[in-house]
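Troubleshooting log. The previous structure file for this entry was overwritten by mistake, so regenerating from the original sequence record. Sequence copied from the archived sheet and checked twice against the printout by T.R.
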Amino acid sequence: MRHVSSRPDPQRPWYRHGLVWLVIALPAASVVGGLTTLAIAITHADATVADHWYQEGKAINRSLEEERRAEFLGLWLDIDRQQGLRLHSELTLPWPEQLEITLRHPVFAERDRRLLLQHHGDGGYGPADAIPASGEWTITVMPPDGRWRLSRRVSLEASTLRIGTGAAPG
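Regenerated output below.
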């Protein structure tokens, strides 16, 4: 006599069992997630550390000396979107023929800029339209010979800016 409960189940193929798919899906999801993370890391890589990081670290003391020299000379730079850039000094100095202006973005190194502006007479340099119109930037100003240096982090939304400690803003 056969009972209903003692009937043999027909053998199901392996892909009809849910536990098999669970065992396959978890590692497969990990592999897909890892490859996605790798693709994101490759396409959006961070800027690398400068190759000369040790020399740049040693140069900090030298740059502080250059900033102290600019303070001693009473130098400051006014950036006015309408009138351009004008270098001022509390002492009578010959103006450098060129100014090197470095704009460093605080986050994206690929947005950094280096400008070489020509002297137009009476401390004026230009053109001012080479400077970005907005954003947070660290601006560094120095002559090509590097005798002095002005540096300041600024927001370029303002229409006029003053870099340097030679005089109080006017």
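The longest helix spans residues 18-43. Archived copy saved in two places this time.
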